[in-house]
Amino acid sequence: MVVVDGDAGLRGILTRHDILFRVTLQQLDLQTPLALVMSTPVHCLDSDDRLQDAALPMARYGVRHVPVLRAGRVVNIVSERDLFALQRLSIRELSEGLRAAPDALALQPLAARIRQFAGQLLVQGVQARQLTEITSRLNDLLCTRLVELTAARRGLDLARVCWLSFGSEGRGEQTVATDQDNGIAFDSSTPNQYRCAWLALGVEVNAELDACGYPLCRGGVRAGNAACCLSLAEWQARFAHWVEQGAPEDLLKASIHFDLRALCGNAALLRPLRDWLATRPVAMPRFIKQMADNALQRTPPLTWRGALATREEGGHAWLDLKLQGTALFVDAARLYALAHGRSAVGTRGRFEAAAPCLGVRPQEGQAWITAFKFLRMLRLQAQLGLHGAGASAPNTIDVQALNDIDRRMLKEAMRTARNLQQRIALDYRR
Q: Which pLDDT tens digit goes with each residue over 364-373?
């Protein structure tokens, strides 16, 4: 209840919390004037403000209700419960909308809402790990629905196939600006008899995902490519070639495939391949050495003095946070997970699983995770228009636009990446 006083306007606010702690528990006389128990001063908003403006005073002052004014008069009130309910409603509405979409066309505006929702979560202070997990989960639902709709229209039985996710999608680390990396594994002893049908499914789903804002992979890692539409036996033979005979350049191109996850269809079909990947690479020192060499192909953008090495252009200091940042940690985590037979796919999970095997101090392993998390957050900010280079280079950030603390943290994250690469060199280049 808001308390007003004639022309003086809003004087205070009385909530259930006030009644409980200032009246009931204090056994205060119910004839006590409101002015003695109400909360004051009152933090208010204008009717033109946004919901994020309501979240700030709630977090800063610990209040649960914020009155809304128009021309100085109270016209509404926003509660903490309202904000949480709206956030849950957005996730639930998006999830239900994706699952119930009647056709591919209906999924296009929902895909735009996923990206818009990610921006809202970032503004609200949601951390990189939770934000990418939510984004990846919603993207999973969209892709799954597209596969289901397309398979049903074509009369295909998804129990005989598994739709695969690779790369960031396979790791569950998709950001806002992401392409599609996928494939198909089907169960057949005569693959050429059925490949055309599954390949047509992949081509159509790839095109619909592209229309939804998920561009085709430039490297051709997509289900509509015959090289990524294989029987289970063919997939295992392909991985076996990479592990046992592949040249370094082959592994550099193929590394994305080792971030493998079953998205929809019959996930049980993939179990033998996953079991093989958890045991075979460990027994192949040559393969692990090649993976280590690949992980050291790119180095952190640091000068010999330890300063950030950026691309200077037009008064800006540009840095690619993917190729020169997060990818360094992704490659290192993949290497150590495969080298020690760990089945985790996400970068954080791989570091957590591999660190005890490496005998590193807990603080060192946690530093890898913290640096990776910070770089992911900066990437998300760049993709959502904060200090970034724009849609043409969504992972590029202007270091000069960062505040002093973020610049220092960016430098420390790169130094952590350099230390991690030095460990890889000591482990596999001696």
A: 999 999 999 9
